Fold these 4 entries.
Entry 1:
Amino acid sequence: MVQRHSRDFGPGYGEGRYTYRGDGGDDSERPVGELVAEAVQQGQRLVREEVHLAKIELRNEVERVRQVGTSMALGGTLLMASVYLFLFGICFAFGAVIPLWLSAFIVGAITAGVGYFLVKGGIARARAMRVSRQETVDTIKENLPWKSASAREHGTISRTQGNA
């Protein structure tokens, strides 16, 4: 006895049904063209479903990134305001001992010096990252001919593909 099973993929996916034999036998009574057409339709349906799923996942990821970005922007704004208030407080504290204009000048100079060294250190780290990326690219370029030769020996690529 031959059992046939079917599954409904829901609306929007072609005919929405496929069938297969449950007895493990072959579909020798069906024409080859029909089998090929069914395989192509199922492949197309699978690709559409994967693209649809990727769009949904990307949309959800973008929404999460937007929420995180908004939170970070608001937090950064509040932190910056607190730094300004803290620096004003230091200026007024020094202003009790020395003239206010001089305390603002001293606090501003110290803040500028700290900022300068932080930026300088960041630039140095960024340059080091660029060098490490170049080292990675150089390593890949060194390994590419070896991998191509190895693949040719094992017959996984043709000689014309190995030079690309």
Note: Residues 1-7, 13-18, 157-164 have pLDDT under 50 and may be disordered.
Entry 2:
Amino acid sequence: MRCMLLFKRGVFGFCLQNEFEMAFTNRPAEAAKKMTADTRPWALRPARPSDLLTVNRVIESAIHRWELPARVKRLCVPLYRYSEHDHDYLDLVVAEAESTGIVGVAAWEQADTDDAPAGHRALLLQGIYVAPDQHQKGVGRRLFGAAEMAASLRGFDGVLVKAHPGASDFFRALGLQRLPVQDDRRDYPHRFWKSVKDH
């Protein structure tokens, strides 16, 4: 049985077996059941290094839908691309459709203490990116659910998001609350938080 361990951060490291069967290093049966129970025409799995080109294409297509000037979008794209070096720091998950391939991407890591609400440990969701033709199909919602589960399994108090302004309504719809800006020099203005303590 072939097994490849990717993104070895905390107890949430993924193990990919036979390229289809997923498990987590903590509570594997429960995690695998949650990740594979959905019957949608796509499934979540950990990204592989060979996915990076496609992952970055999905991110680029998502950024081009943002309400920004074209020049700003062009400048943004290189900053949002992932590289093999990022594997050492991030958990990266893709939504993959059997017929069309990767249609969504999410990435997360442990948040800095100064970014999280006082007294809380947080998983920082770096971003959720969905191919434009897959919007409104539940891809982003399920990727966020995977981030919530990751936070819970790793013992974090909740999920922190530094959202693009245009994504604020999406995260509010998922039950996240906007955090107040307490220091204009430090706090990103579009920070959202959701506790996972009741999961």
Note: The helical segments are 28-36, 52-63, 70-80, 139-153, 168-173.
Entry 3:
Amino acid sequence: IVIGVIVVLIIAVILIVLNSKKSTEKNDTASPVTDFASCLAAGNTAVGTYPKTCKTADGSIFTDKISMTDWKEIMDSSSETIFKYPATLPTSYVHTTGDWPPKVQFSDKAFTCNETGTSSIDQTGKTEKHIVNGNTYCVTKMDEGAAGSTYSKYTYAFQKENTVVLLTFSLQFPQCANYDEPTQTDCRTEQSTFNPDGIIDQIAQSLIYVEK
């Protein structure tokens, strides 16, 4: 009986070691996460609707690509740039404002991102580093309430070739409490999952400088 118990224990130890080795090898050979599809394949969850986003454990964000077929192209003479953008957002409770499409500006400072602020309602807003589809942005968001809505002002700073580019715009978020159910719940769900990172990333990557 003792010998039998010893044999069983030895077999159990061997199986544990083999399973551990297989698990390690599987992790070592796992495909790298480089886009939205591979982010989902790695077991992460998609959230939001326009566009859907997938976030990895290290905080990197990957977005489902939006069709740019119906996007408009604009030449910004003040910044001498050309970029594409959606004329409107296909959302019911998040709206563009008068400063859409985003305004393009440049900074002569080196690209860095000092993460500051604890809330977007602070006087200077909240600044965070976002990595979207492998591209790094320094995002500042400032919220201000007015006439039954919250207006959020965004600034996305990023490196484009040898220049730091700033994209600024505002979005209107109507107060969901002004609606009756079930509209109120629909409003809260859409606003809580809305993230402009994917839209701005595609705008930013479409931006080119006008040749003089």
Note: The chain has a mean pLDDT of 88.
Entry 4:
Amino acid sequence: GRRPSRHRSGVPGGGAGHAVSSLEDALREAFARRVAALPGLDDPAGRAIRHARAARRRRAVGSGFAAGVALLLLLGGALRLHGWWLPGPGRPPVGPVALPSGAEASDVPAPTPAQPFAFPGERDERTAAPRQATPGPTFPPPALGLDLRVGDELWTVEGDRVPLTGAGQVTRVYRVPAGWVYGGADTVRLLRRDGRSSVPLAAVDGPWAISPDGTRLALVAGRELQVREVGEAGLRAGVAVAVPADAEPVAFAGDHVVISGGDAARFDSLDPAGPYRPTWSDTVLAVYGGAGAAATGLVRGPKRGTVCLARLRPERTGLAVAKRGGCRKAADLAPQPHAVSPGGRWLAERGATSVRLRDLPKTFAEKPPGGGASPDARGDVAASTAKPVEEPVVTCPTTGSVAPAWADGETLLTAARDQVIRCRTDGGREVVALPPEVGVRWAFVPDLTAEPVP
């Protein structure tokens, strides 16, 4: 007796075994459908995991942004320190500089200095240019020998361009040991040698004169003629003497001052230590400048209608004629003022189209300064009216209204159209072109610090 099997493959009809098998199949399908359509559950653990993941993503983004900002700040700080550790103005480059084979150090151009970094809108006060900086000038060149006054500016041969302020329209400038003395219609000032500051010297209501060495200033204040020393701090204490109302200083002759009588063609000399007793001369017609204890001027000639150059000396009896020479007809004399060279050896006689350079010792038939006694040491006027020794005269071209000026004892500068001509007493010439920026209102600045040439 073996138990019969629950499933018999060959049994037809709907027995009990077949019913159980169908029920099992139906249950299996129902469970399968329920599992396939299982609704989402509200899982607290899942929510916590999702929130943690979102927080990590936010922290990652924030950390990346902060790292980027920090990197930018570090980079900016490094660039800001760029001007400290890299070569800059006044600092040599770091490390050796390699030169090409066979080249000298002077053949290699200097590296461009690195400039400190500045953020937009930031100003680095260490290297920022002045607010009113003037471009570096190219004129006048040092070889010219004299500064220029261009309008109311001083252009120096050292390459500076300095406004001449505080004197209105400037008409006269001189280079002196203390700097530059300049003035207009009613004020005289001193520009110090540093070219950065100026001080007032005096208020004037007429002409003023400066000594050949640039250390003394003569001016009239009220009814007194004052002579005071010029220093970097201004005028030092001096002397004063009462003078006539129309007296004007013209030139220095040693310790004396040559004065004129205003518009009248009369001249006299005085000792500023005073007192002054008028001894006006009707022989002297003009005074061109002083050198040493004497002055050079123009006097009436021995014949009617003639004039002569003269060496003038101050004496107790007035301005005496010590020497005469170069006599000519008065009609042949150009009215323009003449200029005496430093040391007094040469006279630049200015004409309409040329300047004549005269060797005064030869004109007066005397030896040059330092060359021994004069053949007419007595100063006898009658003896000095003899025919002068003929000497060659050097001529230089000039045009316009710019007055010639001596660069030194042997070189005169003249202006001809758009050029400056350096004329030497040996006849040599050098031409320097004027740039257009000079304009028309300019003048040479006489150098009273130049060494005289004997």
Note: Residues 1-14, 35-42, 81-136, 369-389 have pLDDT under 50 and may be disordered.
